Amino acid sequence: MQMVFDNQASRNNGAWGAVYMTKEELRSPQVNIVDVSLLPKMAEDANLQKWLAKFEGSVEESVEGGSKNKHGFITTNGKKLYDDSCAGCHMQKGEGAQGAGYYPPLANNSKMESKYYIISVIINGLRGMPSFHSMMNDEQIAAVTQYVHSDLNNFTDTVTAANVVQLRHDFPPGADPSE
Ligand code: HEC
Predict the structure, then answer these.
(1) What is the pLDDT of residue 116?
(2) How far apart are CA 162 and CA 169, in angstroms?
(3) How many other C-beta atoms lie within 10 A of the C-beta of residue 118?
(4) What is the dihedral of CA 73, 76, 77, 82, to 10 degrees?
(5) Distance CA 63, CA 13 (A)
(6) How many Å apart are CA 24 and CA 76, to the nearest integer?
(7) What are the pLDDT digits (tens) for 9-30?
(8) Ligand 1 mean position to 34 CA, how many Å?
(9) C-beta 122 within 6 A of ligand 1
(10) Disulfide: which of 65, 94, 114, 135 matches 106 by Cβ 3.0-4.6 Å?
(11) What distance in angstroms lies between residue 157's CA and the mean position of ligand 1's atoms?
């Protein structure tokens, strides 16, 4: 059996109404006909909050410290950045994975001694690995590099945003044909 949508019944059953105003009032209404302050705000939506907490506001535009970060993350917590953006391929403890592709381990990997190597791979990508050039700003790349360098390995260099600036170039890889 097919349901036929009854427009008139829907109008009668649903919430509808009218506001009666004099011509005088209509010319300069004392109050908004719809009081927008009573409408629930998107920012207060519980589901949206959960979503934002999970991705740390990654849907929001964030410009921190003047660095570009158009559609990336807002957190500068290295572990959180790692969990959200690296662990999917390199696994939670950096143990790497071998499946359809090969994801090298980042833990106990002697190449992680060079912070510049890590920064360069994050900025430029590496064959099967995507570039995070436009996803993370300098502080964030520094934070996640520090996490890989020191937490997943036991190296003790300090990684700073200035180190990232040294290697960063204006265009994401592949964006500028003259590069
Ligand atoms: C979509 C999967 C994917 C994601 C996400 C990813 N990687 Fe990778 N990564 C790879 C692959 C695949 C390689 C190996 C590339 C190759 O050598 O061909 C790699 C290589 C690397 C290397 C070089 C390892 C070595 O031994 O030379 C580093 C460092 C690295 N990734 C860090 C990161 C960090 C930090 C993040 C998160 C910001 C990240 N990756 C996110 C797939 C990924």
Answers:
(1) 97
(2) 13
(3) 25
(4) 50
(5) 48
(6) 56
(7) 766 666 666 667 778 777 776 6
(8) 52
(9) yes
(10) 94
(11) 20
